[in-house]
TrEMBL record:
Coiled coil: none annotated. One of its GO terms (molecular function) is N-acetyltransferase activity. Pfam families: Acetyltransf_1. The keyword Transferase applies. This is Uncharacterized protein. It comes from the Bacteria. Keywords: Plasmid, Transferase.
């Protein structure tokens, strides 16, 4: 998709960002109804405003509409057992279901990779739902590798 602008989010993007997050939540509910529940507000407005003010939400815009978003957290890791590192952790990346498969996710990842380089972060990390095979394949295609695997013991 050539007519996509990647930029930092503004307050006016909220409704479109919230709609995209509802799509993600619906997938999570479908995959893990024992953990996730359907809710009207997936992205609370105050949380969104705070992230906008901190420039930690990036959006993909096409035809004056937000069609994708990526939110991240800056983490400082320091302990006696680990090398001190500053990383960007991708908290969520989502593309509107009508616009998937058009390279928008790749453009969002490239934008955040540039932030990592420009601000001299030590790494870029994310977590992905094990059932989200399309996203896992996409992240691997973009060069992400497995760092750890979370496991659970089903009690039922």
């Amino acid at each position: 998709m050539k007519d996509v602008l990647i930029r930092y989010a503004v307050i006016e993007d909220y409704e479109n960002a919230q709609a995209i997050m509802q799509q993600v939540q619906a997938l999570h509910v479908k995959w893990r109804p024992d953990i996730y529940k359907q809710t009207f507000t997936v992205l609370p407005h105050e949380e969104y405003k705070r992230a906008v003010n901190q420039n930690t939400i990036i959006v993909a815009e096409s035809n004056e509409k937000v069609v994708g978003m990526l939110s991240y957290i800056c983490r400082h890791v320091e302990s006696d057992k680990q090398v001190t590192r500053d990383i960007i952790f991708i908290d969520c990346m989502a593309v509107d279901k009508e616009n998937r498969g058009k390279g928008i996710g790749h453009k969002l990842i490239e934008f955040v990779k540039n932030i990592v380089k420009e601000k001299s972060f030590d790494g870029l990390e994310l977590q992905v739902n094990a059932k989200n095979t399309d996203a896992r394949k996409m992240y691997e295609k973009y060069g992400f590798v497995k760092k750890s695997i979370n496991m659970e013991y089903p009690l039922q």
